[in-house]
Amino acid sequence: MKWLETKARVRWSEVDSQSIVYYGNYFLYFDLGREYVAEKVELEYLTEEFDVITLDTTAKYRQPARYGDELIIRTRMIHPSPAEMASPMGFTFQFEYQILKSQGKLLLAEGTSRHALKDKITHKLYVKVPKEKKEKFLSVFEIYK
After folding, report:
1. Which helix (H) or strand (E) holds 104?
2. For the chain, which has fewer Cβ within 10 Å, the N-terminal or C-terminal residue?
3. What is the pLDDT of residues 58-107, one digit of tens each?
4. The domain that contains 103 carries what CATH number?
5. Per the confidence metrics, is the pTM higher than 0.90?
6. CB neighbours of 66 closer than 8 A, spacing ≥ 6?
């Protein structure tokens, strides 16, 4: 599956006294990557129909990012299983991330996250995704190629 990339610069508020990015802030970078993907597929995070729920996350830290570093945030979707694709309740959205330092393309961190949609009226998790949204979302990652 295709990686989508966006960039961010490490800000002062994201580092500790040694100018190293605080580990929890990598999840904010993952979120930036996910929002970039949502923007590309024209899927709004804030709607009257559903909420995006985070089910679980992981992160592995390889090298520290520092104040002022320009980062490349790479995001891609993990292909849903055939059972998830066929489910009348829809499927969870799973993502992989890589955070690289722009200079030298050094891998700094990598991680995953899994998300579902929750219907705002029924409060049911894993709501069925409208077909046109599902197809648009999956097409960005060239899953049906």
Report:
1. none
2. C
3. 999 999 999 999 999 999 988 776 676 666 656 678 899 999 999 999 99
4. 3.10.129.10
5. no
6. 10, 15, 19, 20, 21
